[in-house]
Structure formats: C-alpha cells, structure tokens
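Subgroup meeting minutes
Present: P.N., E.W., G.H.
Scribe: E.W.

1. P.N. recapped why we're keeping a running log of single-chain structure predictions: easier to compare across weeks, and new members can see raw inputs and outputs side by side.
2. G.H. added today's entry (520 aa).
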Amino acid sequence: MAVPTAAAVNGGMLKMGSVSQAYIESKAVKETRSLISELCRQFYNLGWVSGTGGGITMKVHDTCIPKPQQLILMSPSGVQKERMEPDDMYILSGEGSIISSPSPKPNPHKPPKCSDCAPLFMKAAILYDIDPIFDVAYHMRDAGSVIHSHGIESCLVTMINPLLKEFRITHIENTLYENELTDSLVKAIEAYPKTTVVLVRNHGIYIWGDSWISAKTQAECHHYLFDAAIKLHQLGLDWSTPDHGPIQNVKGFSSVNSRINVTKAGTVDSSYKIEPYPRCIVLDIEGTTTPISFVMDVLFPYARDNVGRHLSATYDSAETQDDIKLLRSQVEDDLKQGVTGAVPIPSEEVGKEAVIASLVGNVEAMIKADRKISALKQLQGHIWRTGFENNELEGVVFDDVPEALEKWHALGIKVYIYSSGSRLAQRLIFGNTNYGDLRKYLSGFFDTAVGNKRETQSYVEITESLGVDKPSDILFLTDVYQEATAAKAAGLEVIISIRPGNGPLPENHGFNTVNSFLEI
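Output recorded in log:
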C-alpha cells in the first residue's frame, strides 16, 4: 500500500504519496541505512566528518527501479556522525523531496535537520529544502553517491596558493551558508564536465561517483593526494609537476613562497637560485603605480589652480597657518640660495591678500620646477583633499596594480608606499582610485620625512622602520634610476618599473625591469 502524503512513518513525516511503506522498510533501504552509518563512523575516524560536519548520501541500489527514480538516503546535519544509527537517515525521492524524516531524540540531542548541503547534492532549481550541492551532483552528474568531507587536507590544499582557482581538480570560494555555493558549483561542473570532485576553499570537498564504492574510493585517493601535496610543499618541492623538483616560476615569484633571479622582464637566468619571498614591498607612485600624466596633467594643475582659493577659504585655520609657516621657512632658504621663482612673503601686517598673492607665486614656481620639498607637498595634500572630497579628483592606478596588491596581500607580503608626495596625498590617491579603495592592501606610507628618495640613508631609515631581519627582505619598485641606485646601496632588492610615459633609463643600468606588476 502506498504511504499517504504527510502520514507518519517511524515517527517521521512523509511528503510523497507514491512510495509504499513496505518499500521504505525493504531490505535494500535497510542495508543502505546501515551502510551510511558504518561509513560515517569510518569517515569520523579519518577526520573527515568531525564536529558534526560533513556527511554522505547515496541512492538505494535497486535494479528494478530506474536510477533517476531510486530513493536517496542522506545523513542528517549537526549530529555526531560516529554515533549515528540506521534509523537516523533522511529518505528523499529521486527528485530531492523529503519523504521521511528521522524521529527526534531526547535531550541533549538536537532535533534532526536535513543537511545544508542537500541542494548542492541534487539541483537547486528543483527544491530548496535540501542542500543544493547534492541536487547538482545527482541531477547534473547522475551520481549514485556523494560524500562531503571536512578533512583538514582538503582545506589546507586550497591555501597553498590562495590565488589558484584549481588544484588539477577545480575548487570554488566558500560562502557563509553552504546552500549559497550552488551557482559556483554549477559553473565549476560546467567548466570541467568530467570532474567528480569540487573543493571549497577553507571549507572541505564534495566528491561523487556512480556508486558509494566509487565515491569512497575517490575520496580516499584525493585525501591521500592532498596530504602528499601539503608534505611536498612543506619540503619546498613542487607538488604541481610529476618531477617534484625544487619550486620555480619563470615570472619571478612562485606560488609556494619562493623566488628565482630574473635577468630582465619575462626571461630567466639559467643559473637561477631559489630565494624567499620578500617580507615587504615598497612602491613608488608616479611612473610605478600611477601614470606620470595623472600627476603632471591632473594633480599638479589642480593644486596650482586652486592654491589661492584654498588659502583664502582656510586662511585662519591652524592647519593652513602651519602650511604658511613651512612655506615661509622654505622661501627664506630659497631666497638665500637664489632659487629661481622665489619671492619674498610679506608679514601679516601687510594684509591677508598680499600674503596669499606671494604664496601663490612661490607655490606656482615650486610646482613648475617639480620640487620635492615638504612645504609644497604638505600644502598640495590639503588642496587635493578638498578635490577628492568634492569628487573633483579621482586617483588613477595602472590596470595591473589592484590585482597585484590583492595577490601580495593574500600571500602575507606587507606593501608600503614611498613617495615624495605627503602621506595624506598618498592615502587620498589610493583611497579614491578608479578601482575603489585600495588602502586595505597597504600597510603604511612613507614620504620625504624619512629623507630624499635619491639618498641611501632614506632607505636605511625605511629598513629600520619596517623591522626586517635584513634589507634584502624588502623589494623596492620605482621608475627612477637614481632612486633604484640609492635603494640598492642600502641593501634592498630593486626592480625598475617600465611604464608608458616614463623617462629613459641609462644603458646597462643593471636592474631587473617589469612592464607590469603581474610579472613579479
């Protein structure tokens, strides 16, 4: 006799009227229940389903019933997998609807809950009361069994390189709730039609096969391979190739915390040696992260055109009075040294307008000469702040910069900015770029307060500030040969940035060069 809809079965509830109670209590169903209990205990001992995580589901093998219509048994979520009994399983139709739920157990046991992974095992477009990963696996891959492991190996292997999107088998990014993984799982399966495994970064793995034997065998093999890859990585050996030789990468930095010497962009020295990643990267801005044209054609003109307006609007503020004080001191030195464009700044008694007019003249001359002096850079930063706040300015970086910053950040490399522009100006540029706020990838900012960028002592000061063991732990990127020479003299590793609009370099300059940060 068929079980009526919503009738009780062993304390649970039915939702399908086409399945007889005799079949639910048949030998095939009972054997599948017992098998899942046994496998969960085994997987618990292997560390795959500890802490109530993970699970397994399989179809009831019955040659008399077409495979798409065979019942599916699923271990519940949030229970101690090693203590499950055969009656603890959910029974689902071949389409994914829950037919029978296990009976609740007394305290301290929690009420039974169908796995959050169910729609991932089936197919999310059909039903949402089960984990969509089960749904996807059964309906897209005609699986006979699906295993979800939280084994530590499957988590760690996705962390070897946070930027990789595949580990020969594919892996996808984790989400807050497992049923939100459905779309990315579908895309992974569509991209890799023959795959039977999908890793979820920092979470676990989903494995399926045409039978529980196939799924179990693949689960064991993949966990073994993950463990082997982790151990090879720990030994400094390349887990991604059959030879397992020393880790190398022709782009300069490998995916597993090592680097090789390069002679120039895109080529490799035949006598390369493995070196550790830099602990820190220090970046210049103009001509390195940002086009020179943005600085020369946008920022400088904005500061020049708005210096009078800014000084008039903020003249009595403590900040602007400090700016004026610095400018007075600088102009006095310039006049003594006969610097072109320097004009005397009258005293306050002469009047605000006269003081501002002389300040504007001096600032315009300083900007025209592109002078790298603190008095000018501090005032420019305050003027630019107004421009960014009023949406009159937007920072510009080269297209490869955001991706590189994200990559270095993910690898644990601290990135700093060293520019002749004030630290305020630096924060404004990177906080308001054409790619959004990039400051989350930056650990700090240096300006000429540590010294002139063409002086070796400046890089000594930066090295001491960053607290590295040795100067060579720092990689400095700049477009200026004199800055590169000064940094190299301080012991830093140096790469020169080749960008559109940058000035020519001396022949035989002796530095490695890159046209994009992605070459590093």
